[in-house]
Every structure is written in structure tokens, then in C-alpha cells.
């Protein structure tokens, strides 16, 4: 697997984690748990944005990775 493929796979995984945390925050009845899930989802969003930027950098540096 190439670096670009690994970063893209990581991004997909992070998006799934973000989605699960958001769902848990919405469905939780405990206010403290809801707050923790929400804060965690916000932290993961930062990681997601960093990975998205890295994917764009990789695609710009190595055009053969674009869209794969």
C-alpha cells in the first residue's frame, strides 16, 4: 500500500469514528456522556481536517494518487 492509500484509508476510518461519536452524543441520555461524546467528535474533526489537507498535498505532489 502506498502512503497516499494509507492516509486515505485512515481518513475513511476517522470519518467513521466521527460519525459514531456524533451518533452517540445525539442518542445519549446522560448529559455528561453526551458532552464527552460531542467534545470527542469535535477533536476528531480537527484530525479529519488535517488528514484531508494531507491527502490534497499528496495528490498535488504525486498526481498519480489523485482520485484513487
The end-to-end span amounts to 12 Å
Element order: H for helix, E for strand? HH
* Portion of residues within helices: over 70%
Number of strands: 0
Largest sheet: none
Shape: elongated
Low-confidence stretches: none
- Assess the beta-strand content as a share of residues: under 5%
Structural class: mainly alpha
Average pLDDT rating:
92
Radius of gyration: 15 Å
Our count of domains comes out at 1
Protein name: DUF1657 domain-containing protein
Pfam families: DUF1657
Organism: Neobacillus mesonae
Q: What tags apply to this protein structure?
A:
0% strand, 68 residues, 2 helices, DUF1657, DUF1657 domain-containing protein, mainly alpha
What does this protein structure show overall?
The protein has one domain (3-60). With 68 residues, the protein is an all-alpha fold. 82% of the residues lie in helices and 0% in strands. Helix 1 runs antiparallel to helix 2 (31-61).
SSE arrangement:
Layout lengths: L2 H25 L3 H31 L7
Helix pairs in contact: 1-2
In brief, what are we looking at here?
The chain is mainly alpha-helical and 68 residues long. The protein has one domain (3-60). It has two helices and no strands.
Amino acid at each position: 500500500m502506498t502512503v497516499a492509500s494509507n492516509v486515505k484509508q485512515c481518513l475513511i476510518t476517522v470519518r467513521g469514528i466521527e460519525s459514531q461519536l456524533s451518533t452517540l452524543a445525539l442518542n445519549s441520555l446522560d448529559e455528561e456522556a453526551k458532552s464527552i461524546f460531542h467534545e470527542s467528535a469535535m477533536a476528531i474533526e480537527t484530525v479529519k481536517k488535517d488528514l484531508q489537507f494531507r491527502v490534497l498535498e499528496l495528490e498535488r505532489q504525486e498526481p498519480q494518487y489523485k482520485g484513487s
